[in-house]
Amino acid sequence: MDIRLHHINKQFDEKQVLKDVNMTIVEGDIYCIMGASGAGKTTLVNILMGIIKQDAGEITGMNKRKIAAVFQEDRLIEHWDAVKNILLVCNKSMDESKVKDALEEVGLKDHLKKPVMDLSGGMRRRVAVVRALMADSELIIMDEPFKGLDEALKQQMIQYVKKRTKGKTVILITHDKEEALGLNAKIISILS
Amino acid sequence: MIRMKKIINLKNNRFKILAVCFWFLLWEVGSRVVDQEILLASPTEVLLTLLELCREIDFWVTIFFSSKRIVTGFLLALCIGTFWAVLSYKSRLVYELVTPFIKVVKATPVASFIILALIWISSKNLSVLISFFMVVPVIFSNVLQGLNATDEKLLQMAKVYRLNNLKKIKAIYIPSILPYLISAVSVGMGLGFKAGIAAEVIGIPANSIGQRMYEAKLYLMTKELFAWSLVIILISILFEKAILIIIHTLYKEHIQKLRELNRK
Ligand SMILES: Nc1ncnc2c1ncn2[C@@H]1O[C@H](COP(=O)(O)OP(=O)(O)O)[C@@H](O)[C@H]1O
Ligand SMILES: [Mg+2]
After folding, report:
1. Could you give the maximum distance between any two Cα atoms of chain A, in Å?
2. Which among B204, B207, B239, B242 counts the fewest CB atoms within 10 Å?
3. Ligand 1 pocket, A38 CB below 6 A?
4. What is the dihedral of CA A31, A35, A37, A41, to 10 degrees?
5. What is the reported pTM?
6. Helix (H, G, I), strand (E, B) or coil at A172
7. Is A39 a pocket residue for ligand 1 (Cβ < 6 Å)?
8. Reported ipTM exceeds the 0.85 cut
């Protein structure tokens, strides 16, 4: 079932952040939301995830949908290691070895058992991405998932995300047209 | 860096030891100047009295009698205080209901409590009740503070990923409460013992530390009075450490890492 947003409005204090936003997210497609900083991209996906509530408008097709997310901030359990962080959001049936394999694939082989607070920003970002991809989900929402990664790592992560999201609906926020191209994503522009 | 830290620690410890020596010395000098055992016993005499007391079986029976009751009161407060804090966090109604009770208990002088409670229950188990009443507000406030300090963003993350309650408790709530709980245990155990012994001195149940102190006062046995005070301090520290060790073994990984996290 497609996800539809009808006439979504949101303002903070006096500031109108989202004004009459309408869009349709087709099941199984990859979308990139693009727009200037402060345009309201994060606000939009937070409304979609139910973290904040819109002032007006309606969303259909989100009922009981299993979501996985990379938030704008990492939102990891800081004193836990990467493996534990990821197992936290997985089903009971998930093997620890599978989680380790995934982390190795994104270049975190030597950092599996360190508390994530001891990892660099880019490493923590990768943990957050792997967490979203390992969780049982139908819809994956990613808010600037490659933030803080250098070019080579970014390309590697794009390939990784592409491979791991086959058949799933993905909404990804980015500033970077190349990311959108690399993922064969449909582009949604948000104007500020 | 690590070596630097060690050296600083050693220095710190040396200062601590020196400070303790200083106060003992002052005490010793003071007692010699006063030169009246009844007013101020000297530290060496107090220690000797303590060693002598240690040889009596009664001494240990007395310690067991008092500790058992005071620690029971403490543990009851730990469970019930935590339970109330969780309910208060969940429900505004419970919070509003419990708060005046806690405030009144906090504001009431221990002595009023002790005398009032003596009307309700036997002096034998008075210290359970008194230690409970002194400790419960500390546990309640601290655990509630810890719950209120949970990271809203992590709770949102938990909601999006549909984490069950057990996972939320393990990953988010317990780490948030732990630092507050640890300080509550430290403060609470000391309070419990102070108030519990005060209750015994007033209620004078047989075989209690309070009774022994009351008698020591009655017969002007100042050395014994000092020695028993020392005993109270020692056992209250002992039980405080014991409970902290239990918490540390249960949540080892959390505590070490949380400390570093708070430092950052
Ligand atoms: N909780 C909030 N309270 C007040 N203003 C907010 C809040 N969240 C976002 N905003 C404002 O809304 C605008 C859009 O923010 P955001 O959705 O984070 O933009 P983007 O993700 O596109 O950079 C910004 O001007 C921001 O300051
Ligand atoms: Mg944003």
Report:
1. 50
2. B242
3. yes
4. -40
5. 0.87
6. strand
7. yes
8. yes
